[in-house]
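Subject: CDP-alcohol phosphatidyltransferase family protein structure
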Amino acid sequence: MALNNTYDARLVQQETAVGAGLQILLLALIGTAIGMGPAGWVTGLVFAIATWAVLSRALHRAGSRTFGPANRVTLGRATLVGGVTALVADSFQDSPPVSLFVGLTAVALILDGVDGKVARRTGTSTPLGARFDMEVDAFLILVLSVYVSMVMGPWVLLIGVMRYVFVAAARVWPWLTAPLPPSTARKTVAALQGVLLLVAASAFLPHVVNFGVVALALGLLVWSFGRDVLWLHRTHRATQAAPAAAGRRARRELVTS
């Protein structure tokens, strides 16, 4: 049994290594096609190594014996995000081809709706898989906001950093880590962020329209986070108030008895 567990663990680690290899291959293809500069290469390689290291450590800590089909889809999406990240880093020197940038980003966004369905249909949903999916989504939004901010200004970065600010705030106020109720509106707003940022990044529309598109994305995100934070705060206050109310009732019953 121990040998089987070791063998399974090695297979899982091999799949993450294959993902890193595919990331490097994609960078090589992009570099050959557009003559990518040092900034793009370094950023892409750092992304590949960091993804491999963090994912391998998380799988080891979770004791995963299989990588799973859904995680393979997410890993493929992470590879595309690495390519987009390299292009954005390279864009500080030379603008990337719009068709390549839009193509990689669009496929990554489309696959965002695939891995969850695969996990549910194959019965392989796991907390680690959901976290992996979420982190890839968040990083892609951050990268897209960096790219769009170079044209529209630093205020666009609020879209990319808002989720990370929320995570940092949860370290100060642990009640922010409480589970939220399912929400179609939250999922819709999250999905729209990448689409709206890609529309603006493609520059197919007039600047004023793109400005409105990004402003809409930010407004929706502020509304979504604000609603969730308000719900969490109210729930936290209600949870704290319940023991106090129970104590007061107990004291009244003692007095009346």
